[in-house]
Design goal:
The structure holds two protein chains of two kinds. Chain A is of the alpha+beta class. In chain A, strands 2-1-10-5-6 form a five-stranded mixed sheet. In chain A, strands 3, 4, 7, 8 and 9 form a five-stranded antiparallel sheet that branches. In chain A, a hairpin with a 2-residue loop joins strand 7 and strand 8. In chain B, a hairpin with a 2-residue loop joins strand 3 and strand 4. The two termini of chain B are 20 Å apart. In chain B, helix 1 packs antiparallel against helix 2 and helix 6 runs antiparallel to helix 9. Chain B contains ten helices and six strands, in the order αββββββααααααααα. The longest helix of chain B is centred in the middle third of the chain and has 28 residues. Classes of the chains: A alpha+beta, B alpha+beta. The interface between A and B is large, with 55 and 49 residues.
């Protein structure tokens, strides 16, 4: 008797596991359930911002800690004729345009950026996929540029426009002003002491060290200050947020 | 003292909430693992670095590599058939992941939402069990229980069906206490803290975490190892429930059950 009931128990557990799985897929397709799951992003954002000083630095490392090879991911070459032409002349004609809510919207050439005060930091790049690479970045702290272009008080977010396209859409990312003014946030033009390689985002890539890799926009052509992300792309604040359910806040 | 139920309401509530959370966290965690099925020691680790554990896949076969040991896992890991009979080359198969077809973004959403419920549940259960003396009365190892002879007898009793059946409703034996303490106070908190260590924002907030676990990639490896120790605990837990009378045992974890007076 007990053997039969036990067998029944096991088989019903197996059926239960099977329906649990298809149930999970059904829940995963439900917009209301997705909204509930997504509420964890708000919790992560609020708690992670509250746990430390807003300007707390990400860990910095020594030269001996560098990854032997800094892995590239996402776009490895924008592949357009314009980009190739610019790369051929060492990005001499590259411009970083400041648009939107700035009192002094302006543009910088690579040489102009390099003549500003620089910062070098060795940090760990954490990809959303799970891997990490340690690299040495040199660039202009974003704060210096925001001050030069005079960010207006109505601005809430900084949108980074990029030269690369993925699946036919332009790549973009955005951060808020706390990350924008963070001392480690920069537009980097050197990696490990060399000019930034094309696969890593030449000539300019964003470093926002307290977030995951997909926030570190490559091939940056412009910074737009906005009061709301609603009018940019599909309004979710970034390429991966628009095309899939990736979180705008990528602190974890 | 009024007669005590075998399991207090807090224990029962937490047990089932925690069980649900752990299943979802494991399966959504496997989705996240599938994004990069390689594990490293240290702070960094990517495709060009040495992985102590990796799942390899191709259209022809799947394999698991542990150090220098390579085991073919076609059909199970790295190369398997989905429900439509198509060959898939993700590491863990669809029946083991949430969602069942690969989506890192969705897997992360499930993982973080249930991680919050799991963490609050564990914290609440720990505080409540400290307060109502569940920890001291039922889980605390007395001095004599640490004796090797005592531990050995407790272990041998787990090999005897009669002893397992007889023990239902009694105070926990020392092997039981050790496994519950190990899970509640070591493995489950380890899951939370190694998980947090992987967060770049937590690295800035609590840099001690990376130092504690020897780097982000070490923490990721430990997160994975601890998860599989929890799976091992779950399997033994299931065997013990099945051997000791599953209906009575599950019923007791729902309604509370009756406590037997100690036989000795």
């Amino acid at each position: 008797m007990t053997i039969i009931t036990r067998r029944k128990l096991i088989s019903s557990a197996a059926i239960g596991a099977g329906s649990l799985l298809s149930g999970c897929d059904a829940l995963n397709r439900s917009p209301a359930f997705q909204d509930m799951l997504a509420s964890a992003e708000t919790a992560n954002f609020t708690v992670q911002r509250a746990l430390g000083d807003r300007m707390e630095l990400a860990s910095e490392y020594d030269l001996v800690d560098l990854s032997p090879k800094f892995r590239a991911n996402g776009t490895r070459d924008p592949g357009t004729a314009d980009y190739a032409a610019s790369a051929a002349q060492g990005f001499a004609n590259w411009r970083l345009r400041f648009t939107g809510l700035f009192a002094k919207p302006q543009q910088f050439s690579l040489a102009a950026l390099q003549s500003l005060p620089q910062r070098t930091q060795i940090t760990r790049h954490d990809c959303v996929e799970g891997w990490s690479a340690i690299g040495q970045w040199t660039g202009v702290p974003l704060k210096i540029l925001l001050d030069l272009a005079q960010l207006k008080s109505s601005a809430k977010f900084l949108v980074f426009h990029c030269a690369d396209r993925l699946g036919g859409r332009p790549y973009y990312e955005s951060i808020d002003l706390i990350d924008g003014f963070h001392p480690q946030t920069m537009l980097a033009h050197r990696l490990n002491g060399e000019p930034l390689p094309i696969e890593n985002g030449a000539p300019l890539r964003l470093r926002v060290e307290r977030q995951l890799g997909y926030k570190q926009a490559k091939y940056v052509t412009g910074i737009e200050a906005v009061a709301s992300l609603a009018g940019i792309g599909e309004g979710k604040g970034g390429y991966w947020q628009d095309v899939a359910n990736y979180e705008w806040y990528a602190g974890i | 003292m009024p007669t005590r139920k075998r399991h207090r309401l807090t224990t029962r509530l937490w047990h089932w909430i925690n069980a649900l959370c752990l299943v979802v966290l494991l399966m959504s965690g496997l989705t996240i693992f599938n994004a990069h099925p390689r594990l490293y020691w240290g702070e960094y680790g990517a495709n060009d670095d040495y992985a102590w554990m990796a799942v390899g896949s191709s259209e022809r076969m799947g394999y698991l590599r542990l150090g220098e040991l390579r085991l073919e896992t076609t059909g199970f890991l790295g190369n398997w058939q989905d429900s439509q009979g198509r060959t898939q080359t993700w590491a863990f198969p669809g029946w083991a992941t949430i969602p069942s077809s690969y989506s890192l973004a969705d897997g992360r959403r499930w993982h973080f939402f249930f991680a919050w419920i799991f963490s609050f549940g564990l914290g609440f259960f720990m505080l409540r069990s400290l307060w109502n003396r569940h920890i001291f009365r039922d889980l605390h190892m007395r001095r004599k229980e640490w004796r090797p002879s005592h531990l050995w007898r407790s272990f041998r009793n787990h090999m005897s069906l009669r002893a397992i059946r007889h023990s239902v409703g009694e105070d926990y034996n020392s092997i039981q206490k050790l496994s519950y303490i190990g899970v509640i106070f070591v493995l489950l908190p380890l899951m939370i803290f190694t998980g947090l260590t992987m967060s770049p924002a937590m690295d800035a907030n609590w840099p001690i975490l990376t130092n504690l676990f020897g780097g982000r990639q070490s923490a990721r490896s430990l997160h994975f190892i601890a998860a599989f120790l929890l799976v091992l605990f779950f399997l033994i837990h299931m065997v013990m429930v099945l051997l000791s009378g599953p209906f009575r045992q599950i019923g007791a974890m729902i309604s509370g059950g009756e406590r037997k007076e100690p036989s000795r």
